[in-house]
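queue> pop job 88
queue> type: inverse folding (structure -> sequence)
queue> payload:
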């Protein structure tokens, strides 16, 4: 598919941090505001980067080139809200906005395959019911293609050789299952192709946009692929639970005779294969011993892959033929291996390339492949180009039972004077836990580590067991290990940091969003003596209620969750879920905690935060609760991000002793409410009072 939609990217923009209270409260202390403490600043003297330069809207993002190469599009603010802009490819200075959203902003868009029109998706208040819109780049005329309520659109297939036709899924008949429609972008006509009474959770289409396979969950937590036949569906491929995250279909050759698939059957890491659909014979194309095969670049005429990527500690590209070698050599010469192909014209004569390093903001270029000429477009955040940014370094940490945890360490600028990758003296450390948990941290520029390092903290990001990309053995090692071995990996990582003199045992905070929020709650309830404080962003507190309240469109994923987290339908599984739920250990919390939640979150519902806050209040344990009524699974509106980061920064400073920028006007325009615990963060009550007065006029 030519268009990539980042529907869920906002979910883990919630990789936020904080700690509560100027001192560690005991359970017997009242909820009155403690005395202000003076932040200890032992970090190298580096100028503070204003929060809005890191967490405000980027100046430019999501740059794409139109299929013909005549136009460049990107996302940029219009009156503070992200919208689509378009410019002639030969005159970027003539760019103009073509959408005028005034709410949460547009986060996912793309060019129609083979057509000079754009599509974008939008939900309401973070409810993840994404509807599909079209916009003409020359007239700015907009069309709502899916005018339905409580409906989530998914993108299934398109092909530049069939311009204007888009295959989409719509779940307005049954919220659990998507029916398949063909959208004619020119007329707006929707044609039902397949009513999904088979309860397929996914589909595969060939280059003629014909449905070839349907994917269905099994009762044991795996998948089955069914092949479309003349008289129904035939079982094509069985994927057992252990291969679930390392096996999948990966498209067709241009003539539809070859199916590409990534598979881990009989091996650990996922390899790329080509299957002759007439004979069933498979040919190995690419493999890697340490990591799963990532993305591929495909020939526009044949559909054959000529480059593939692998991400172990860093993303690396490998050529499969001479053309791939020549292209990679030119890109490596220009960017030193730090690049990503983000968009191309239909004939692949012009590319949009993103150059990104861990201590430099990402910069977009166009590349004329034939002439090998690069044209710099712009940096995503130009105001950061002159700032001193911190370097991220990959670290391989051993778990107590012998797994290798690919991790990333970011130190403040100037902390590593001799260049050995270690600070000259121990620093306070923030353990930043990724969400998912079936996801991963990767190398590169990341806003949260930069912010924390600039405030004087070492930042450690750990790919604990259950993280994806490192083979099936590693991801499956996380099954039924929430709060157990998955948590042990995080403890092993901070023990490593202490042993390496990166930090000391009394100066470690834990934070994260989604699963990272759960890990924070687990850290403060299972191992309360190991962390000085923690921040939970949209994290589940009760795994039993989490599984009981998943959104309906996750129905095909339900058995996978039960297989990997715990099965509430069995006595043993229910006991496991309860034992791993921080809510049932809330009395163990003895360290400061900040909780952030979006009221419209469809995945980790507000009740997950409400119930642990209520339990802490019942046990007279201080907690600060930041609630945003117009957000979902993460904070999409920049005003809300800045409000929360402002709160979190003061919170951390009093917990770990780092630098902080006062909250001041960071609440302006946000929807922040603090139902509980504003007094535990210095300056928050006053800022809220001024903010409320300002809103009242």
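queue> result:
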């Amino acid at each position: 598919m030519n268009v990539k939609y980042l529907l869920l990217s906002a979910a883990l923009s919630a990789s936020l941090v904080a700690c509560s209270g100027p001192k560690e409260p005991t359970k017997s202390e009242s909820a009155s505001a403690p005395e202000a403490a003076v932040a200890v600043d032992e970090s190298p003297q580096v100028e503070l980067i204003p929060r809005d330069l890191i967490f405000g809207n980027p100046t430019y993002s999501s740059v794409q080139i139109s299929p013909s190469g005549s136009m460049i599009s990107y996302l940029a603010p219009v009156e503070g809200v992200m919208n689509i802009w378009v410019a002639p490819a030969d005159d970027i200075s003539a760019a103009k906005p073509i959408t005028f959203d005034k709410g949460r902003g547009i986060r996912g868009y793309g060019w129609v395959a083979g057509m000079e029109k754009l599509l974008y998706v939008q939900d309401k208040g973070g409810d993840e019911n994404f509807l599909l819109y079209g916009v003409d780049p020359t007239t700015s005329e907009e069309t709502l293609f899916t005018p339905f309520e409580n409906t989530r659109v998914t993108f299934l297939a398109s092909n530049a050789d069939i311009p204007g036709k888009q295959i989409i899924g719509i779940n307005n008949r049954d919220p659990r299952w998507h029916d398949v429609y063909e959208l004619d972008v020119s007329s707006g006509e929707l044609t039902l192709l397949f009513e999904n009474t088979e309860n397929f959770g996914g589909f595969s289409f060939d280059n003629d946009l014909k449905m070839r396979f349907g994917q269905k969950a099994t009762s044991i937590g795996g998948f089955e692929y069914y092949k479309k036949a003349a008289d129904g569906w035939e079982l094509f491929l069985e994927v057992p639970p252990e291969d679930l995250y390392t096996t999948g279909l990966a498209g067709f050759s241009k003539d539809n005779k070859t199916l590409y698939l990534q598979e881990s059957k009989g091996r650990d890491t996922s390899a790329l294969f080509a299957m002759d659909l007439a004979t069933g014979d498979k040919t190995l194309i690419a493999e890697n011993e340490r990591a799963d095969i990532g993305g591929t670049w495909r020939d526009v005429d044949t559909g054959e892959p000529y480059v593939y990527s692998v991400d172990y500690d860093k993303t690396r590209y490998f050529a499969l033929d001479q053309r791939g070698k020549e292209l990679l050599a030119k890109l490596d010469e220009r960017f030193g291996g730090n690049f990503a192909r983000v968009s191309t014209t239909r004939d692949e004569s012009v590319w949009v390339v993103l150059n990104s390093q861990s201590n430099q903001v990402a910069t977009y270029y166009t590349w004329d492949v034939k002439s090998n000429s690069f044209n710099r477009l712009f940096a995503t955040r130009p105001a950061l180009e002159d700032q001193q940014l911190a370097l991220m370094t990959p670290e391989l940490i051993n778990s107590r039972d012998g797994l290798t945890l690919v991790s990333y360490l970011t130190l403040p600028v100037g902390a590593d004077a001799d260049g050995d990758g270690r600070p000259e003296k121990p620093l306070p450390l923030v353990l930043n836990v990724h969400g998912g948990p079936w996801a991963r941290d990767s190398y590169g520029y990341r806003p949260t580590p930069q912010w924390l390092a600039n405030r004087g903290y070492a930042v450690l990001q750990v790919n604990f067991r259950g993280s994806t990309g490192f083979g099936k053995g590693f991801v499956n090692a996380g099954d039924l290990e929430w709060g157990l071995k998955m948590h042990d990996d995080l403890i092993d990582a901070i023990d490593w940091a202490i042993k390496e003199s990166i930090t000391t045992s009394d100066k470690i905070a834990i934070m994260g969003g989604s699963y990272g929020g759960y890990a924070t709650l687990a850290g403060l309830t299972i191992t309360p003596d190991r962390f000085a404080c923690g921040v939970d962003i949209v994290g589940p507190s009760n795994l039993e209620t989490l599984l009981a309240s998943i959104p309906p469109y996750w129905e095909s994923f339900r058995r996978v969750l039960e297989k990997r987290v715990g099965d509430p339908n069995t006595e043993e599984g229910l006991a496991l879920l309860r034992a791993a739920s921080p809510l049932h250990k809330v009395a163990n919390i003895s360290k400061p905690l900040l909780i952030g939640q979006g009221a419209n979150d469809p995945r980790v519902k507000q009740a997950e935060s409400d119930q642990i806050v209520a339990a802490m209040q019942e046990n007279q344990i201080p907690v600060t609760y930041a609630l945003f009524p117009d957000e979902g699974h993460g904070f999409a509106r920049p005003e809300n991000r800045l409000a929360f980061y402002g709160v979190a920064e003061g919170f951390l400073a009093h917990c770990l002793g780092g630098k902080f920028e006062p909250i001041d006007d960071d609440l302006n325009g946000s929807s922040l409410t603090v139902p509980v615990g504003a007094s535990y963060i210095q300056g928050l009550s006053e800022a809220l009072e001024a903010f409320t007065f300002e809103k009242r006029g």
